[in-house]
Amino acid sequence: MIMTFGAIFLLITGTISPSEALKAIDWNVIAYLFGVFAISHALFASGISEKVSNWICADSRSIPQILLFFILFVTAVSAVLTNDAAAAIGTPIAIAIAASLNIAASLPLIALCVSVTVGSMFSPVGNPQNLLIVADGHFNNAVGTFLEWLAVPALLSLGFTLLWFWYCFRKAPTGDAPSNVTPDEQNMRQWPALLATGLLCALVITDSLAHETDWLPDLPLGALSLIAAVPLFVFSSHRVQLIKEVDWHTLIFFVSMFIVTGAVLKSGALQEWLSPWHDQLGDPLLVTSISFFGSQVFSNVPLVEIYLNLLEGHETATLMLLSGISTLAGNLFILSAASNVIIVQQAEKHGVTPFQFWQFTVYVLPVTAFSLIVCYAWVAFVRNAAG
Asked: In a 3-state reduction of DSSP, which class is residue 224?
């Protein structure tokens, strides 16, 4: 609402014209998010998410095993369907874990926040800021580039996340566990949701490989997402329900955010503020500092959008460091990443009390510090080895 009111105010005052606002919106990102949000709801409404949670929380599994399978699952979903979609899909599973272990839902929900954020580092479609960087960087093989530069710090960070939350889960007091979350009516067929998910995975991977061979036309990720969602609307009799359950709040947030950042760039205020460091915006320490602390003020997606417009040279190492640090910045405060807010909203939607502001920060701070150090060190290592 705040972002939307800001965009409306800028339009009313003429700070940015309607035509400039439309041009500032990255419709490729909006289209991609629409498709994956439709797929994520279909997975939940058809009961697939419930089946996954039942498998993860099987009676024979220990706490480390439950955590391991949970982290691996949401990491895979985050890497393929973006962290925001993984947040929506993973919330009922995190609540199911809390019910299974007889603990408050806040701790599994915080673990979900961390896992979807770190997991999104693996892929060029893992989060919206990665989508912006891919669109700006023009990589020949976006998937390979992200794996080369960010897979190692992501794996190490996930390993630390597993160990840290295993310790936290063991110390968590029992009781106050929520009830398990299931769809009100599992009236959607499962196969269209599974087909859409598999189609999106295949399209993203094929599109990335096609960049190197030039044997297929280059399609924007937004188009791939919409194509993958077609089976949901063609073969499902609940098309209206699917459209209603799309996370419109987040889509409106991103549309408004693009308008606000477009107005900021047009005003020249940020360029003037950063002018003393204009020639140093590619410096690793400056990239790290601005992307991390700036993400706490602007949130990571608008920060990356603005930074890319100010950056003159688009060296791969700089773009990968910007991607990694701005992503990990989401693991400091609830408002640092849209996926954190989505998890809070989804938990409340399911009637579960989520975590508190400072409770979140206390639990994620060790993971944040470790992952930032590892990410910076690895990108510096690969940069030196390549140079």
From this structure: helix
